[in-house]
Amino acid sequence: MTVMSQEEMMVGIKTVAQGLEALKNELMASNNPSGQNTMQPEEKQSMLQKTLDMTELGLGEAQVMLALASHLQNVEAEKQKLRTQVRRLCQENAWLRDELANTQQKLQASEQAVALLDEQNKHLEFMASISKFDADKTEDQTESKQEKSKNDDPVVDLFPDDENEERNTLSPTPPSQFAQQVNAGAGYEIPARLRTLHNLVIQYASQGRYEVAVPLCKQALEDLEKTSGHDHPDVATMLNILALVYRDQNKYKDAANLLNDALAIREKTLGENHPAVAATLNNLAVLYGKRGKYKDAEPLCKRALEIREAVLGKGHPDVAKQLNNLALLCQNQGKYEEVERYYQRALEIYEKKLGPDDPNVAKTKNNLASCYLKQGKYKEAEILYKQVLTRAHEREFGTIDGDNKPIWQVAEEREENKNKSTGAAPYTEYGGWHKAAKVDSPTVTTTLKNLGALYRRQGKYEAAETLEDCALRSRKEVHKSEN
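^ Kinesin light chain, sequence as received from the core. Prediction below:
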């Protein structure tokens, strides 16, 4: 139904009124005897009745239209009112959301503050409970700390990251190895009154909870300096721990200051040739290496090597690890002749002291091969990569023969037979190799990728794809086992 406005209705009513007036005039004219109207009375009556019906119908429709227009006006007014209420409610809702977000942030900050205060309270209670040990310290205990076994100080591992073997940077310290590095850095037995706190800090740091570990270290340093003075081996130990925490947070400047302070204390109290001094020197070398200051790191690493050789002997495995660290620093400076010499000497120590199946042997061979690769010595690199894979195969599958071939031989056969219709070994025959050949050792997977890259440089694409596919499968298997 078309809605008429009030003006349209008024126009319609006026039109009807005019029609009635015209009808009236016509009737009056018909009653005039002098007129010439020949319309019969019945016709006039019918016309009049029709006009009346139309008039009544028009009036009825006009009333309906007026009522409908009034109703629509009321509905529109109510709609506007509801829209205003909706806008007001939306504004109130946005305000409430902002208030809720601010309240949640304040609550989270309060919870963190409460947690930190709780940890500090526990630490203070712990320090109070172990304060009785201070009275039990004697000169004999001090001497025994300084003359403790020198074999408890292995050096921090600086091998390249196994998933980025070609990268010329020092690998970051994994949180899972943090505790081992900190314990290795002492060079002597941790005193009883510090051992529990020492382990607590390591636990928090290895979990990445630095907001708790750092205050604990600082509180311990403050307590130690009050009771023992700044120049004390225990203070140096806590400085070393805090420095490693800062290093894992990439706060290298703060870590370097702490390590230099710890080094000065240990040289003064323990002597310049003590294993703890070598550990601090090595940690400083690691720190400078992470910042790309290889020239500053190299002399520190060399001095640490000299101390370990003098204390442990030139054939000790820790000396070999220090040689690996020094080789890596030289490699980042392009000193490949020194790199080869250091790696070869480390390899001899590992093979002699730990045996050919020790993981460090394969790792060092891989590193030396990568050094050859950077110099374009592809043949030398290929020999070492194949030695690593061959040894891994023999360890898992036994002696190599015609039916028991290492993966690199299978890859080369596939390369030779790629254009032949028969003769190439199907992948299923060696597809399970990656599951059994020490896939838990990232060095084997890295060797597969490196030898694959070498094959690709030589144009042996079929062999390269074989090794690369095997390395990819190995990596997936490791990830599945970790998950």
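The mean pLDDT is 77.
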